[in-house]
């Protein structure tokens, strides 16, 4: 299935099928469906008789059956081990806990395995597709190994790199890929997606910055309930007791419920940063972006803030976000974050 906001790009890909380069870089915000588009392109290229109207793979031929069973030898996916484990285990709590030990990077051994696989003639002629997602998960050693393949690509092999942070890729990698830049969906497409959804889904959509697939992933993990609790805990005035709430949140983050939902300290800090962003935006005369359902509550809080207090709070949260992935002490980090937030709310607007 091609998402409505990706239809123009899909049509261009179908039109240029015979003139596609050996490597492409699908770049844009996470949650747009770039990986889905790469998979659909691979499906079409490996299909014997793609649909002449939609351009999609037929789903019935031998190549499609191999792909759908996950056994097509000419379709290779380079993904971090942690992502592959999580997808295979369907997101269960025990599976997620186990996947923490897996690497979050694409390893050089994986690229070497691809190099070896591509020395063999393709299963159906010479056409083969390698999808690298997310491409920024490659460390310098892995990237340099892939670069050799991009410099001397095997005949008939297409590399599709998917990235939400293309600036993190080696310049030499980017220079050897044809760039395909994807922006945010049009407002009409977003509204159409949210029209038949629940209030919880629309809240996750706003939290995701208007990225429908990102909202779908959060909803599938059960993070709608996480969001409801977060808003209930943080959206009070005066600010909640920082030390008490930090203790509650520490237990929350370590609970089976949070682990099963893939909700950790990084996500919590992200949400706090977005909450403060909405406060700052309102205080400066802008519009709420991430928490529109809490418009009135945010407006009441923002009316009590000085511009200096909310600006300083935002800058402090940016610094906290940089170290959120590896806190030395989770409880102290939560206390520090909430104390800074409480201090901003206590600094009344002059």
Proportion of beta-strand residues: 5-15%
Distance between the termini: 54 Å
The main sheet comes to: 5 strands, parallel
Annotated CATH homologous superfamily of the largest domain:
P-loop containing nucleotide triphosphate hydrolases
| SSE succession | HEHHEHHHEHEHEHHHHHHHHHH
Q: Find the structural class using helix and strand composition.
A: alpha/beta
Number of domains: 2
Principal-axis shape equals: elongated
Q: List how many beta strands DSSP finds.
A: 5
Mean pLDDT: 87
Explain what the structure shows.
There is one protein chain. The chain is of the alpha/beta class. It folds into two domains: 4-181, Rossmann fold (3-Layer(aba) Sandwich); 221-346, Zinc Finger, Delta Prime, domain 3 (Up-down Bundle), CATH 1.20.272. It contains 18 helices and five strands. The chain has helices spanning 7-15, 34-45, 62-68, 81-88, 93-99, 108-117, 140-151, 171-175, 187-195, 199-207, 212-220, 223-234, 242-253, 256-260, 265-283, 295-302, 307-323, 330-346, and strands spanning 23-27, 75-78, 128-132, 157-163, 178-181. It is elongated.
Spell out the key features of this protein.
350 residues; alpha/beta; Rossmann fold; 7% strand
Present the secondary structure layout.
Elements: H1 7-15, E1 23-27, H2 34-45, H3 62-68, E2 75-78, H4 81-88, H5 93-99, H6 108-117, E3 128-132, H7 140-151, E4 157-163, H8 171-175, E5 178-181, H9 187-195, H10 199-207, H11 212-220, H12 223-234, H13 242-253, H14 256-260, H15 265-283, H16 295-302, H17 307-323, H18 330-346
Helix pairs in contact: 4-5, 6-7, 10-11, 10-12, 13-18, 15-16, 15-17, 17-18
């Amino acid at each position: 299935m091609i998402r409505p906001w990706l239809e123009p790009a899909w049509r261009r890909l179908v039109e240029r099928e015979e003139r596609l380069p050996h490597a492409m870089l699908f770049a844009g915000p996470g949650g747009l469906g770039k990986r889905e588009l790469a998979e659909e392109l691979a499906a079409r290229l490996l299909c014997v008789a793609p649909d002449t109207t939609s351009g999609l793979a037929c789903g019935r031929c031998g190549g499609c059956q191999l792909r759908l069973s996950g056994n097509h030898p000419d379709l290779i996916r380079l993904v971090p081990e942690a992502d592959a484990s999580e997808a295979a285990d369907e997101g269960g709590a025990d599976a997620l806990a186990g996947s923490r030990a897996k690497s979050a990077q694409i390893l050089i051994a994986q690229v070497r395995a691809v190099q070896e696989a591509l020395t063999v003639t393709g299963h159906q002629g010479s056409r083969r597709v390698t999808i690298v997602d997310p491409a920024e998960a490659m460390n310098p050693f892995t990237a340099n190994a892939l670069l050799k393949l991009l410099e001397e690509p095997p005949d008939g092999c297409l590399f599709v790199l998917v990235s939400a942070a293309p600036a993190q890729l080696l310049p030499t990698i980017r220079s050897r890929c044809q760039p395909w830049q994807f922006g945010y969906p049009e407002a009409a497409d977003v509204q159409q997606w949210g029209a038949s959804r629940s209030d919880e889904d629309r809240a996750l959509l706003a939290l995701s910055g208007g990225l429908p697939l990102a909202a779908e992933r959060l909803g599938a993990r059960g993070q709608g309930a996480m969001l409801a609790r977060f808003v209930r805990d943080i959206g009070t005035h005066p600010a909640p007791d920082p030390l008490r709430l930090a203790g509650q949140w520490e237990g929350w983050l370590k609970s089976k419920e949070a682990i099963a939902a893939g909700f950790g300290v990084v996500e919590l800090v992200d949400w706090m940063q977005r909450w403060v962003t909405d406060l700052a935006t309102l205080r400066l005369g802008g519009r709420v972006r991430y928490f529109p359902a809490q418009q009135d509550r945010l407006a009441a809080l923002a009316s009590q803030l000085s511009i200096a207090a909310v600006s300083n709070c935002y800058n402090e949260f940016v610094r906290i976000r940089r170290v959120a992935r590896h806190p030395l002490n989770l409880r102290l980090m939560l206390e520090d974050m909430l104390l800074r937030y409480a201090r901003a709310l206590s600094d009344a607007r002059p």
